[in-house]
Every structure is written in structure tokens, then in C-alpha cells.
Design goal:
Layout: H1 2-6, E1 12-20, E2 24-27, E3 38-41, H2 43-48, H3 50-56, E4 62-64, H4 68-78, E5 82-86, H5 88-94, E6 97-100, E7 110-117, E8 129-137, H6 144-153, E9 159-166, E10 174-181, H7 188-199, E11 203-212
Parallel strand pairs: 3-4, 3-5
Antiparallel strand pairs: 1-7, 2-5, 2-6, 8-10, 8-11, 9-10
Length: about 220
């Protein structure tokens, strides 16, 4: 998300994919959880399996890796009790053995991935759409965020995501990343809300993309 914000104007969101995430405990063939010396994984994957790791490997330190694939590769090559949290495909690629299956704390664990490109999707297709924007507060003051949210609420526009991120323009400077339901190219209420925020001097609005909303059903 931070890289997308930093590169706005050069890349845009063209779509989204909801992908199920299933984590396995993986080691070199012959390894066993009871002889584990450490567990490697990407910090996000480790966090998603935190309760399982504390319950089953309470004394084993967890160390970070750049990716779950790297963690699995390192574990398979180590042969020193190093295990990894990763997916089944990584175990197949690097010749790892699955020692425990589906160790994630949330069974229906899914991650949203953005499909990016250089040009925004321009379509009149009906259905559910999402518009992603950045709001940069013009003047930091109490109630500035409320003023932004009110423009959406007044027009009955649902927001599916709201997150503050560092603006990279100075210490303590933040922007707001917002996902709003609707297509900014055709939905008049959404257009009106964005115009009111931008031209009303509340915040500078930058579009990160407008795209079909992915199916979020299990």
C-alpha cells in the first residue's frame, strides 16, 4: 500500500483478487516439531499462526524471512531443526515435508491482492465497483477527517476501508487511504462527494483506481 501511494500517478489499481491463505509447518525431510530449534517465516505469516505456534512450539524462537518461500527454502537446506511457516506449493518446490497442516489461527484466512497497471479501467459495465482514493488533509485541524467522512455519509456512500498512512513529506504527516463503494466515472453521488472534499478545501483527493469489486463470499 505504501509503495502504491508513493507511486501514484505512475500506477493505478485495475482490479482485486481475494485469495485464500493456508499455512503449513514445513521442514526438511526427517525433521520433527519436537526437535525444532527455530521457525522462519514472513512476519505476517508468523502473526497469522501466532496462537498455534505459542500452543505447540512455545519455547521455539520465531525469526523473520523476506517471504514464506524463502523461509521454506532455508528450512529445507538447514537440516538443523529449522522449520518454516509456508504454503503447500513452497514445500513441493523446495522438497520440504509438511509437519503440520493448516496452522493458521483463522480457518477462513483470505488476503486481498491488488492488480495494478499503468492505465485505469474504463468501463460502463454494471455490477459492484470500488474506487480507491488518497485524501491529503489541506490543513491539519480537529475534525478534518470527520469532514471527509461526512461528505460520504451525506450521500449514503459506504466506505469499505479507511486507513492512515505516512505521507513521506515530513514527520507526523499522514494521508488517508479510502475505499468507497461505487464507480467514480459514472456514479453521481460519489462524484459529488469527491468534488466537495477536493474543491471544498477539506483535502486534496487523488484517485488510485476504479475497478470491479471482487467476490468476497466464502
Amino acid at each position: 500500500l505504501d509503495e502504491l501511494i508513493a507511486n501514484h500517478g505512475r500506477v493505478v489499481i485495475r482490479g482485486e483478487v481475494i485469495h485464500p491463505i493456508r499455512h503449513q509447518l514445513i521442514g526438511a525431510p526427517g525433521e520433527a516439531p519436537e526437535s525444532a530449534t527455530r521457525v522462519l517465516s514472513h512476519p505476517q505469516a508468523s502473526a497469522q499462526c501466532g496462537r498455534w505456534l505459542k500452543a505447540h512450539l512455545p519455547e521455539v524462537p520465531v525469526a523473520p524471512a523476506h517471504s514464506t518461500a524463502e523461509a521454506v527454502q532455508m528450512a529445507v537446506l538447514a537440516h538443523d531443526g529449522t522449520l518454516a511457516v509456508g504454503n503447500r506449493r513452497s514445500a513441493e518446490i523446495y522438497g520440504g515435508e509438511i509437519l503440520a497442516e493448516d496452522i493458521m489461527d483463522v480457518p477462513d484466512n483470505r488476503t486481498r491482492f491488488a492488480v495494478v497497471g499503468t492505465e485505469e479501467v474504463m468501463s460502463d459495465a454494471h455490477g459492484e465497483w470500488t474506487t480507491s482514493i488518497i485524501c491529503s488533509i489541506v490543513k491539519d485541524r480537529p475534525g478534518a477527517l470527520l469532514s471527509i467522512l461526512q461528505e460520504f455519509a451525506l450521500r449514503a456512500i459506504n466506505l469499505t476501508r479507511l486507513e492512515s498512512r505516512p505521507a513521506r513529506t515530513g514527520l507526523g504527516h499522514y494521508v488517508f487511504f479510502i475505499d468507497a463503494e461505487g464507480n467514480r466515472h459514472r456514479d453521481l453521488p460519489l462524484q459529488a462527494a469527491l468534488t466537495a472534499i477536493d474543491e471544498g478545501g477539506i483535502a486534496a483527493v487523488t484517485s488510485l483506481g476504479c475497478y470491479p469489486t471482487a467476490d468476497r463470499s466464502p
